[in-house]
Amino acid sequence: MISRELGWLQVAALLVSASYGVGFLFGSGELAVTHGMAGSLYPWLTALGMALLAVSAGRVWMSRAPIWDMFGALYGAGVKRQVALLSLIWMTGVLAAQIHGGMAVLLLAGVPQSLALPIMLVLMFGAAQLDLQAASKVFSLCLLASSFVLVFSLVKMGGTHVYVEAVPRFGKDVQGMSVRELVTMTLAIVFLVVTGADYQQFVIAARSRTDAIVGCSLAAVCLLLLGALPASTVIAAQHTGLLDGLLSAKQAILSHAGPRWDAAMLMTLLAAALGSGAAIVRAMTSALASVITPTTASRRAGASLAVVLLGGIVAQRGQGIIQTMVELNIVYVASVAPLFIFQSIGAHVPPNAAKKAIAAGFTAAALLYVGEWAGLVRGQIELASLGIGTLASFAVLETYRRKAAQSACSRGHANQYVVNELSCIDRRERLVVTARVVRCIE
Q: How much is the pTM?
């Protein structure tokens, strides 16, 4: 059981640090290279999700349970294990993004490429072992430092006006993104912020319901203000010509740092990756523990190590940071969102139907993802994966709903038949009694 010891400021600091990692910074910057201020879409969608989490924070705090335990209480242990394993899948994508970004910082600091991944995995595992009180202090300082790094770069390049004009620039630049990209990112990011165990763990650990709500609200405001910094810095670097002649998006993201940055500044960026990654590792370990139930501290540490290694494997795929997160988010959303909607509107779903619906959504969405990974499917498959997986899950739920309705209707007809028969019997008995009374009178 998570101890409740966090004040509203600590809740906000941990929520922002869980979001504002190097994956967040570099991912937004990568998108800004091709889409301008629309690179702020990911952080601002995260802020929107955080605001919605604030609305439901009181209920989450009172439940004291992550989403897999909530589903387990409603639909049984089988569904609990399914949702926990699916949570591992989407959180692996976010963890991989943090590892990817942290490796980029290490490479910029001069660490050999062959050592960057092992070092990052060891640091990520160590950061995940900090308790929440210590983590809130350490990573809030790192968050301030990494934000200062971006503000310093922005001012140095004379790009403060870009940040001030972020909203109108965003409105213009976002029109260059396809509807498919906008829909996919919105659904994948907002739903995961509201229901994600990596964020809910801090809401549950708040001292009071008020601390949980205020912490989420403050985190949403902070992410809204900080969200435009990465894209603004990249746009300012483009205006000054610093990005000319670079061969890759990753070089473009790192170029605004420049070779003269000292180790302290690079370490703040690395710490940002560790803060976000540590939150993910804790949540993933909790999800894994609900499936394998480690009985000792050493086994729990082994579970943490396993999830860090899994994130490292996915990080080596070489995708863009936001794409890595969104694609695995989609598999989870397609599998769980339909059941979440049915549960939210109070529709009754039998445990067997819930298990089959999750399995159907996961199978449909995962097949497309694996097909793309294997090179069998090409192009942007995120929206197709979301649509097909969601439809498969909804189809199973709707089939069971109709069967239940037909069964209830059949039972209703049967009950009405019994009532009619009893009424006929009553009428016959009344006629018999009346006849006997008449004979007696005669």
A: 0.77
281, 273 contact by CB (below 8 A): no
Residue 238: C-alpha distances to residues 225, 242, 253, 269 (Å): 22, 6, 11, 21
Give the chain's domains with CATH numbers.
8-319 (1.20.1730.10)
CA distance 264 to 270: 10
Judge whether 2 and 207 are in contact, CB under 8 Å. no
Give the pLDDT band (50/70/90) at residue 214: very high
pLDDT band at 427 (very low <50, low <70, confident <90, very high): low
Smallest CA-to-CA distance from 60 within 2, 145, 123, 131 is with 2
Q: Quick count: other Cβ atoms within 10 Å of Cβ 323? A: 17
Phi, psi of 346 (to 5 degrees): 80, 15
